[in-house]
């Protein structure tokens, strides 16, 4: 039986995300052209305060208030597309969370107001530093934590806090903290880091959440997707559902490296009858 293409974490667009391209409808149409069975639209929630804007957002003259208005337009357009293309492809409408002071409270308010189909839990900041923005920001975050081991521990601690507070149906790019670290396999095996990885995976299992197998790492030159193979082995042992996500940020990235990721999961024995996120 052919394994169907899906993306549990996809659908960013230049219409509603500063670092993406194309309109949301163009991105949705690209998913349909590539015969996806279903896709989740998961653009970013707005920041909780102007202090947490990314440099590119500041350069555009954006504010937290302006991005909240843009998020409202995103949810409206995503629901329109969901209804308009319902006979051609199943579209789930969600959003990706942040983890800065005030963001958990804001995420709860957005969930109550917009009633998304599901949310994707993502951590992109440590000590309010956007560690995934560039290597310089990553180094600042590492320095603030006293080094790489402290950085990894802080990341997984914040991830657990978000998992327990929001119970996101999908946990995004579980090991994103390795993004600019070529020694990540070594860091992952440190006792304090490994303890936190296992603890977080057990929380994912106990809450019956999904791990996003995020192949976007490959387009940036990484050796393997998020989640890396040593963590995948643990997830497989714990019986955690792992579902592919292309984390596309424009038409050109729709489905990029997805088949490679699906092949990896199939070879490791994961269930390829992909589980959909539970509805909020």
Structural account:
The protein is of the alpha/beta class. The protein has one domain: Metal-dependent hydrolases (TIM Barrel), CATH 3.20.20. Helices cover 44% and strands 15% of the residues. Strands 1-2-3-4-7-8-9 form a seven-stranded parallel beta sheet. Strand 5 and strand 6 form a beta hairpin. Helix 5 packs across helix 6, helix 6 packs parallel to helix 8 and helix 8 packs across helix 10. The radius of gyration is 18 Å and the shape is globular. The model has no long low-confidence stretch (mean pLDDT 96).
**What is the element string, with H for helices and E for strands?**
EHEHHEHEEEHHEHHEHHEH
- Measured by DSSP, the beta-strand proportion falls in 15-25%
Assign the CATH superfamily: Metal-dependent hydrolases
Number of domains: 1
Global morphology: globular
CATH class: Alpha Beta
- Overall average pLDDT: 96
**Secondary structure category:** alpha/beta
Give the name of the CATH architecture. Alpha-Beta Barrel
Q: How many strand elements?
A: 9
The largest sheet, given as strand count, sense and whether it forms a barrel, is: 7 strands, parallel
CATH topology: TIM Barrel
Q: What is the overall number of helices?
A: 11
Low-confidence runs of at least 5 consecutive residues: none
Distance between the termini: 31 Å
Radius of gyration: 18 Å
What is the topology, as strand order, of the major beta sheet? 1-2-3-4-7-8-9
Helix content: 40-55%
């Amino acid at each position: 039986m052919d394994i169907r293409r899906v993306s549990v974490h996809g659908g960013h667009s230049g219409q509603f995300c500063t670092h993406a391209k194309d309109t949301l409808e163009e991105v949705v149409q690209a998913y349909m052209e590539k015969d996806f069975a279903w896709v989740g639209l998961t653009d970013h929630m707005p920041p909780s305060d102007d202090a947490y804007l990314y440099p590119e957002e500041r350069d555009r003259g954006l504010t937290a208030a302006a991005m909240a208005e843009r998020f409202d337009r995103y949810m409206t357009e995503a629901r329109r597309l969901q209804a308009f293309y319902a006979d051609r492809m199943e579209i789930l409408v969600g959003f990706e969370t942040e983890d800065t002071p005030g963001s958990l409270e804001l995420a709860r308010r957005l969930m109550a107001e917009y009633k998304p189909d599901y949310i994707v839990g993502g951590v992109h900041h440590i000590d309010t530093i956007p560690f995934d923005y560039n290597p310089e920001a990553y180094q600042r975050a590492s320095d603030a934590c006293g080094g790489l081991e402290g950085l990894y521990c802080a990341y997984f601690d914040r991830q657990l806090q978000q998992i327990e507070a929001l119970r996101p149906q999908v946990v995004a790019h579980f090991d994103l903290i390795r993004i600019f670290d070529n020694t990540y396999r070594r860091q992952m095996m440190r006792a304090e880091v490994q303890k936190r990885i296992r603890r977080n995976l057990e929380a994912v299992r106990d809450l019956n959440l999904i791990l996003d197998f995020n192949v976007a790492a490959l387009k940036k030159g990484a050796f393997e997707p998020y989640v890396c193979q040593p963590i995948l082995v643990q997830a497989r042992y714990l019986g955690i559902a792992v579902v592919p996500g292309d984390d596309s940020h424009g038409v050109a990235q729709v489905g990029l490296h997805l088949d490679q990721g699906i092949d990896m999961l199939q070879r490791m024995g994961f269930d390829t009858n992909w589980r959909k996120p539970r509805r909020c």
